[in-house]
Amino acid sequence: MSIVLALLALSFLVFFHELGHFLAGKFFKVGVLEFSIGMGPRILSGVFHNTRYSLKLLPLGGSCAMLGEDAAGSGDFSTAKGEEEEDVLDFDGVVFAKEDLEKYSFEKKPAWQRFIICFGGVWHNFLLAFLFAIILTVNIGTEFPIIGASSTVETPAMKSGLQDGDRIVAIAFADGSKRSLATLQELSIFLELHQEDFKKGDIKLTVLRDGKKESFSFSPYRDPESGKYRLGVQLKNGRVSAKNLFQVLEYSYYEFRFNARIVFDSLAMILRGKVSRQDVMGPVGTVAVIGGAVQQSSSGGLRLTILVLMNLSLMLSVNLGIMNLLPIPALDGGRLLFILLEMLLRKRLNPKWEERINTVGMAVLLLLMVAIVFNDVFNLFTGVYSKLLN
């Protein structure tokens, strides 16, 4: 049951992404040939208002096929999959008169409209993630990093002037790098990812005390048991509930920002070569981790299970949105880059070259997906994903 819920959650995120393209396309009167959820052969399908809606066998992925996308390389609509019948083209039950092809074609729309249509999926992912963040904020509040009473261990941080009740809002390292922080979870992840930065020298902690920001500098503290660098302060339960709409939006933004930063930090680690094979997770691994988390939370009741599933969906929705913005051919980011260049140069790039680049990009993307799925299966059978849940 937990795996089914995980698949449904992942499918819903993809559905919402494609819905963003679909609604934007419909708004600008682009002909949508098929809006589908899933991959593979169709299970259910029908034409409504000259658009085919389909549910496919494999509950992963989805698509929103628009009129004119296949004609990008040739400029000839007869090369698309439509069957020519006198004065109309029939795209598997979706029919357009030949004289209306340019009117409803994606490729014939102004660049700014095509940009909005391509960005629609990413926008929907971010919107959905923020809605999840609002629901979580209202239900469980937000946990801030609040300094508690001094521990029995004397540390440089506690000697610097920090006090019980100070709320940590930023940290800076000796090399000048700085990061604003909001939640306890954000602080914890940040400290784990930046252990090397502690070796550079003194750190400066900015806290909120009586509504005013104050900064304190001290040398880093290394935990003798774990060998890891810590701030050297005792933190207490700082979970608070939003008191008004403004605070709900503010705290929800903190949750959204935290998840976005995880994605950017992960991409930076990949570029620096600090990510191992076991750290890479694809669709199989995602379903396995979500399913495991849902199963573990089920003992706490339906409400807890829903909140855990929503929290994971928030993370995945932000991830899906940001990854789709990467300027890689065949992704939304690649198409947006071509449109931006067209708008800046005020000249359409050669459609044939654009199509060839996207084709190569899609082939590379498919090969990468195959490699990631094999890696997922290997990690699944070697227990890597089970360790993440323990």
Mean pLDDT: 80
How many individual β-strands?
Answer: 15
C-alpha geometry: elongated
SSE pattern, N- to C-terminal: HEEEEEHHEEHEEHEEEEEEHHHHHH
Order of neighbouring strands in the sheet with most strands: 9-8-10-11
Q: Strand count, sense and closure of the main sheet?
A: 4 strands, antiparallel
Tell me the radius of gyration: 25 Å
How many separate helices?
Answer: 11
Distance between the termini: 20 Å
- Name the poorly predicted regions: 71-80
- Going by helix content, strand content and strand pairing, the class is alpha+beta
What does this structure look like?
This protein has 390 residues and is of the alpha+beta class. The protein has 3 domains: 80 residues, no CATH class; 180 residues, no CATH class; 99 residues, Pdz3 Domain. 49% of the residues lie in helices and 20% in strands. The chain contains 11 helices and 15 strands. A 4-stranded antiparallel β-sheet has the order 9-8-10-11. A 3-stranded antiparallel β-sheet has the order 3-4-5, with no helix packed on it. A two-stranded antiparallel sheet has the order 1-2. A hairpin with a 5-residue loop joins strand 8 and strand 9. Helix 7 packs antiparallel against helix 8. The longest helix has 31 residues. The radius of gyration is 25 Å and the shape is elongated. About 3% of the residues have low confidence.
